[in-house]
Design brief:
The complex is a heterodimer of chains A (about 290) and B (about 750). Chain A contains nine helices and eleven strands. Chain A is α/β, with parallel strands linked by helices and about 290 residues long. A five-stranded mixed beta sheet of chain A has the order 6-8-11-10-9, with helices on both faces. Chain A has a two-stranded parallel sheet with strand order 1-5. Chain A has a two-stranded antiparallel sheet with strand order 2-7. In chain B, a hairpin with a 2-residue loop joins strand 10 and strand 11. In chain B, helix 3 runs antiparallel to helix 4. The two termini of chain B are about 35 Å apart. The chains are: A alpha/beta (about 290), B alpha+beta (about 750).
């Protein structure tokens, strides 16, 4: 069954590679259109993650969280750019590598160009006081993961969740997080919140779409590429959990894909100027907020 | 035993000089010649023996002859002995309350025993004079000797008596005491030694009071902020025969603030424990610390102590300059936010052109990145320097930082970082003079002194006792355990040699795991320790270097309820910032029946104000008050006086200071002090043998026990300092001479039997 699944995944990836139209549809769109049945292929990633070495604690190390997702092809995983992607690894590691490069250029933060990846239950999760999760619309958390994340956040760790769209994906994510911090409510941050002003003054939350639809005037991704029902996809927000002292513990950049603006900065000069600059402004503000509060 | 063999006590030999009758006489020479002749004749009988046997026999014979000749020579000791009937011996009896305690065995009090010894003529001298002492020395009679004194000043009484006795020749002082010296007595024996009077101390009471547990010391912050946690460190001295537990309780009046249980082990006679309680609302509090000991506690009056707390809203202003957004910055801020008394103002360079300020009072504070004036900098008590290049500041600002420590008395804490210490160019700046380490810049091309790598932080003995490295723990072992179980740190900045005044409080210890992808970095080899947290006083202030910036790991890699990271930073910052003096300072030094007032006045630049009028209103425990003028003392803005305080209790002192030319009513500041009113005699009540030994050894006397005073009379007679006369004491009949003679002949006879010579 495993061999069959991998075989099917490879075949489908080849189809994507050979189809310029599919590539042009962008990551979110493509991952919904192209699906494979290869759920069992995630095993090797788990083992690799547990062997991940400790990183240099003198640097800011972008850390991507590995998590499990529910569903099958187009849900828990998708094919794109010639390979199978799990939801957690969307844009990884190119987005983090580009982001670290720009952070080092633009700020006094010393960022590592070698991003780390961790499971929430990793014993050394605390060595990354900021963790990043992407594409969490189908995410599911186990009991140990919930407990580990709860401890991490209560210790002062900061969670940033990005690239999920619409009402259904939000509801799925909200349900998962309700088990982490029961009784705590998400609130939409107003543009006056300090996180929009730590380094750059941001007066409007940018909406960064998947690369494949970035050429359009409307930056909202189409409803049919996301979990049903999507509701409105037009308004990007930062929603947040705050601790009892008002400090943000977790933020969710919803209806936008900030990291895609980092990953795709070389897509074209027009793309860089329209989307990447805004993505970097948000990203830098968020990490400086996390480093100061 | 010595006296039985040698006829006289040891101290007679120590003082005396060996002499012989002078003219040895014809008989002596005849006997010597006869013995020599017999020896020669006898030697012929041994001609067949090997040489070494003959030598042994001859040696024994010559030794016996020498002893015999010595006896014939009429040996003696030439000594100086007190002239009979001329000298006086002072009997000095301790009349403090501790003398009412039972003596060894518990059948009689120490005072009753002392009186009995005096009545029995303890000194064995015809002329004695009796004195009593507690706080003061006074002539006494047997009937007036009562253990009522509130404290005993042993050294003070002895010195006063020995130096001022003018009623004749004082041969010696016999001191009858438990030696329980109370605070306020002199430690210096120089004046007593100079008087030249030997002190023979008769120690009364047991060395330990079995079953007693004493609250020996309580150390607690005097001015905690309202509604904060106050940690008191208590020292318990005990002589429990078995392992057990004692309850420790803290109360304010009848309200119990905290309670804890402390384990007592007979093998550990002194136990240090921490107890934490809430400071509560503003105001004056007299907090009682007490041990709830069993009913058979032989000395329950030493189970409690009181401490005066002035719970006031204090503000410790701290300036933190950081050149690099990093996790250490975030977690220091979070730790400090828990303490309302710490006002942390931070200035962070986020980009080469942008900064981020937090904790500022208004939009103008630190808008230029550094206080705009010296007075502005002096408004803080502590400056923390993070990974900030020295080039960020101009020359004036560097000079201000140095004077902030040396002149203002502020504290500086330097953290590790890429741009910290010598790596940041601070080695050529004035502040380097204040730091406890020599800053050594790495040669061109050499790797940075700031590197990654894992190791454990370990407290030194000084660190275990210092508030600068306090992460909680109710005992030394508990504190060590709390340090040992902290997560490892992850970075280290190489420090140069320590300066002479530096104290290492924490060390980096343990092996270092190599971080993959980086150059192998070994900070500590084979477990040897290197300094991690180092402090030294400089000028009026102090400077501290912490060679890491990864203490945030103590927060992120422990359970949320584990507050060791927060405790470390709050204690460190609060202590450093709180140690900085204010411009107006009032210190009160309570005596036994007096209160010393000292006021220090400085302006905003911490320049002493010499020309000022300073008055104090002193409110007694009864509520009555009186005023006192504090004149200048010694310049430098210091003013002071001493006021009498006849009634024991808590005194309130309100000082009003007005500088010359200053309008208005001036500045008023207040403090409280407790004067007297404590049963100090109940503490340290066991016999203080070390003090008595020290006094006796320094003055040429001895320490005696009440049941073995046989040699005291002769010790005084031969070691006194009064009027003395020379005396020759014969030794020809000392038993040791005859015992040796017989022994020599017995050995000779035995050898000859063995070797066949008889």
């Amino acid at each position: 069954m495993l061999a069959f699944s991998l075989h099917m995944a490879k075949r489908m990836n080849l189809l994507v590679d050979g189809s310029g139209a599919a590539v042009a549809m962008g990551s979110s769109l493509a991952r919904s259109v192209i699906a494979v049945v290869a759920a069992t292929a995630v095993g090797p990633f788990v083992a690799a993650a547990e062997l991940q070495p400790a990183h240099d604690l003198t640097e800011f190390v972008p850390t991507r969280i590995e998590y499990d997702s529910v569903g099958g092809a187009g849900e828990a995983f998708y094919g794109y750019d010639g390979r199978v992607w799990e939801r957690w690894e969307t844009d990884f590691p190119q987005a983090e590598q580009n982001f670290a490069k720009r952070v080092n250029q633009l700020t006094n933060v010393v960022a590592s160009r070698q991003p780390a990846r961790r499971k929430l239950t990793a014993p050394n999760l605390g060595d990354s006081p900021l963790i990043y999760m992407s594409d969490v619309g189908y995410m599911t958390l186990s009991g140990p993961e919930m407990r580990a994340l709860r401890q991490y956040l209560y210790n002062g760790g900061f969670l940033w969740v990005d690239d999920f769209w619409g009402d259904a994906e939000w509801a799925s994510f909200e349900r998962a997080m309700a088990g982490v911090l029961p009784g705590r409510r998400w609130r939409v941050l107003p543009i006056q919140h300090p996180i929009f002003h730590t380094v750059f003054d941001i007066d409007e939350m940018p909406q960064i779409p998947a690369r494949d639809i970035a050429y359009r005037a409307d930056t909202a991704e189409p409803p049919w590429v996301h979990r049903f029902p999507t509701g409105s996809l037009d308004v990007p927000t930062i929603r947040a959990y705050a601790d009892d002292d008002g400090r943000l513990m977790a933020i969710a950049t919803h209806n936008t894909d900030i990291a895609d603006g980092w990953e795709r900065e070389s897509y074209g000069e027009w793309y860089f100027e329209r989307f990447s600059t805004q993505s970097y402004r948000v990203g830098i503000n968020v990490i400086v907020y996390a480093l100061t509060h | 035993m010595f006296e039985w063999f040698f006829k006289y006590p040891r101290h007679v030999y120590q003082q005396g000089e060996l002499v012989f009758a002078g003219d040895l006489g014809l008989l002596w020479w005849l006997v010597a010649a006869l013995l020599l002749a017999l020896s020669v004749a006898f030697a012929r009988r041994l001609t067949g023996w090997p040489w070494h046997r003959r030598a042994a026999i001859h040696a024994l014979q010559f030794a016996a002859v020498a002893v015999l000749l010595a006896i014939l020579a009429a040996p003696g000791l030439q000594v100086l002995r007190l002239s009979p009937g001329v000298n006086t011996v002072a009997l000095l009896v301790d009349t403090s309350r501790s003398m009412a305690l039972p003596d060894v065995g518990g059948d009689t009090s120490r005072m009753a025993l002392a009186k009995g010894l005096v009545a029995d003529g303890v000194a064995g001298q015809p002329k004695t004079v009796l004195y009593g002492f507690d706080d003061q020395l006074r002539p006494a009679e047997m009937a007036t000797l009562e253990p009522t004194g509130e404290r005993s000043r042993v050294v003070h009484a002895l010195t006063h008596l020995a130096a001022n006795y003018d009623q004749g020749a004082l041969a010696a002082i016999v001191l009858l005491t438990d030696g329980a010296q109370t605070p306020g007595d002199a430690d210096d024996l120089d004046a007593l030694i100079a008087a030249g009077v030997p002190v023979h101390a008769v120690g009364l009471g047991a060395l330990t009071i079995v079953g007693d547990a004493e609250l020996a010391e309580v150390s607690v912050p005097r001015r905690p902020p309202p509604n904060s946690e106050v940690t008191a460190r208590v020292t318990i001295r005990h002589a429990w025969p078995d392992v057990g537990e004692v309850k420790l309780r803290v109360r304010d009046g009848e309200s119990v603030l905290a309670a804890d249980v402390v384990a007592l082990d007979p093998d550990i006679p002194v136990v240090v424990a921490d107890v934490t309680f809430a400071s509560g609302a503003d105001g004056l509090k007299e907090v009682t610390f007490e041990l709830l000991t069993p009913e058979d506690d032989p000395l329950p009056s030493n189970d409690s102590r009181t401490r005066l707390l002035e719970v006031v809203e204090a503000e410790h202003r701290v300036l933190y300059l950081e050149g690099e957004p990093r996790w250490e910055y975030k977690f220091i801020r979070r730790a400090v936010e828990e303490d309302p008394a710490i006002k942390l103002v931070t200035w962070l360079r986020t980009t080469p052109r942008k900064t981020y300020r937090q904790g500022v009072a208004d939009a103008d504070e630190l808008v230029g990145g550094f206080p705009a004036s010296l007075e502005g900098l002096y408004d803080y008590g502590l400056v923390i320097l993070g990974s900030l290049s020295a080039g960020t500041l101009d020359d004036d600002q560097h000079a201000w930082l140095e004077s902030f420590v040396s002149e203002r008395g502020g504290s500086v804490l330097v953290l590790a970082g890429r741009e910290a210490l010598a790596d940041g160019g601070w080695d050529v700046k004035p502040l380097s003079r204040a730091l406890p380490i020599v800053l050594e810049r790495a040669p061109d091309g050499a790797p940075s002194g700031y590197t990654a790598g894992e190791y454990a932080a370990h407290p030194t003995p000084a660190g275990l006792d210092s508030p600068l490295a306090d992460i909680g723990g109710t005992s030394d072992s508990a504190r060590e355990e709390r340090w040992a179980t902290l997560p490892m740190l992850g970075d280290y900045q190489r420090l140069g040699p320590l300066k002479a005044g530096a104290t290492t409080l924490l060390e980096a210890q343990g092996s270092v795991r190599v971080v993959p992808g980086t150059e192998p970095t070994v900070i500590v080899r084979g477990g040897a320790a290197v300094p991690l947290l180092v402090a030294q006083p400089y000028g009026f202030g102090q400077a501290v270097v912490l060679a890491t910036a990864s203490t945030w790991r103590w927060r992120m890699r422990t359970a949320p309820e584990d507050d060791r990271h927060g405790l470390f930073w709050r204690h460190l910052i609060r202590h450093l910032a709180g140690a900085a003096p204010t411009t107006r300072r009032l210190s009160l030094e309570p005596g036994f029946d007096a209160l010393d007032l000292k006021v220090s006045l400085k302006d905003a630049r911490f320049t002493p104000i010499a020309d000022a009028s300073v008055t104090a209103r002193i409110t007694a425990p009864t509520g009555e008050n009186f005023d006192a003028v504090l004149p200048p003392i010694g310049g430098d803005g210091a003013f002071g006086t001493t006021v009498a305080t006849a009634i024991p209790g808590v005194y309130r002192v309100d000082v009003t200071a007005r500088a010359s030319g200053e309008g208005g009513a001036g500045t008023t500041f207040s403090r409280l002090a407790r004067v007297g009113g404590r049963d100090v005699e109940a503490f340290n009540a066991a016999m203080n043998a070390p003090l008595l030994e020290r006094i006796a050894a320094a003055t040429g006397g001895r320490v005696w026990t009440p049941d073995d005073l046989a040699g005291l009379e002769q010790a005084i007679a031969f070691g006194g300092s009064g009027i003395r006369e020379r005396e020759r004491m014969p030794l020809w009949d000392a038993p040791i001479l005859y015992i040796v003679l017989v022994l020599l002949k017995c050995i000779e006879w035995s050898l000859r039997r063995l070797w066949g010579g008889i």
